[in-house]
């Protein structure tokens, strides 16, 4: 699987500095509103009062005691609705990433059909209406003039958790037996459709799994990143390795 050859995802500049100890500084140049957003699409986008936010640093204690609800191919996962303190909570896409990152995890990425089926079963069995994934559209600084990402709605998606490209949206992914993107949505056309841009000029830049919102079963949809949803977190090898290397003797 190809990785996204960019400075980093969602205009994030990650720099590792060493003074007395290593620190990771990740500046997010994004503006995602945090407002209750139950509808799949809002007619008016709420104004954000949080114009610039950081990606959260991992918390070693939280990493060592992170929820391990289920396990798949070397990674632990948890659904926020099953975790005390997070149950019933809905957050925007960036806050979702930050909750996961504090636990040395990130929003879930589904690179294989087997992993995708596992998440679909979780949604079905728990009657979850929707969740965020780490999927993100490369529509920010650094994505300009990239012929390999055009057209963006087909080739411009990637998993922000590991910076691997999502396979083209208009075909069945290699190694899969079906296309996980929905074949319908607000505009009655195949996803991703960037439908909210026609309503309030907000790009649908984040990848969510919706549960039959458009009578289409459980499927992938592009959604504006400010909407609030529960999350599924997955172990981040990058963050786990960082915490292990900077906290001698920690058990993760």
Automatic annotation (TrEMBL):
Q: Where are the transmembrane segments?
A: none
- Which UniProt keywords are given for this protein, alphabetically ordered? Disulfide bond
Q: Where is the signal peptide?
A: none
Q: Where is the C-type lectin domain?
A: 72-234
Protein name, per record: C-type lectin domain-containing protein
């Amino acid at each position: 699987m190809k990785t996204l050859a960019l400075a980093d995802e969602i205009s994030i500049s990650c720099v590792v500095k060493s003074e007395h100890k290593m620190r990771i500084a990740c500046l997010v140049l994004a503006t995602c509103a945090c407002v209750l957003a139950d509808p799949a699409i809002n007619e008016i986008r709420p104004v954000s009062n949080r114009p610039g936010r950081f990606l959260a640093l991992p918390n070693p204690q939280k990493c060592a005691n992170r929820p391990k609800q289920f396990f798949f191919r070397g990674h632990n996962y948890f659904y926020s609705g099953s975790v005390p303190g997070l149950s019933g909570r809905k957050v925007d896409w960036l806050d979702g990433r930050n909750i996961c990152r504090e636990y040395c995890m990130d929003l879930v990425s589904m690179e294989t059909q087997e992993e995708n089926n596992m998440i679909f079963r979780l949604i079905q069995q728990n009657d979850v209406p929707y969740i965020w994934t780490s999927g993100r559209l490369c529509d920010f600084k650094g994505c300009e003039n990239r012929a390999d990402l055009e057209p963006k709605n087909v080739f411009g998606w990637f998993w922000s958790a590991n910076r691997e490209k999502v396979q083209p949206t208009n075909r069945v992914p290699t190694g899969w037996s079906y296309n996980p993107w929905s074949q319908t949505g607000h505009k009655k056309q195949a996803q991703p459709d960037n439908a909210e841009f026609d309503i309030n000029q907000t790009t649908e830049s984040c990848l969510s799994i919706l549960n039959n919102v458009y009578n289409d079963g459980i499927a992938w949809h592009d959604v504006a990143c400010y909407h609030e949803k529960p999350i599924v977190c997955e172990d981040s090898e990058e963050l786990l390795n960082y915490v292990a290397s900077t906290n001698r003797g920690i058990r993760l």
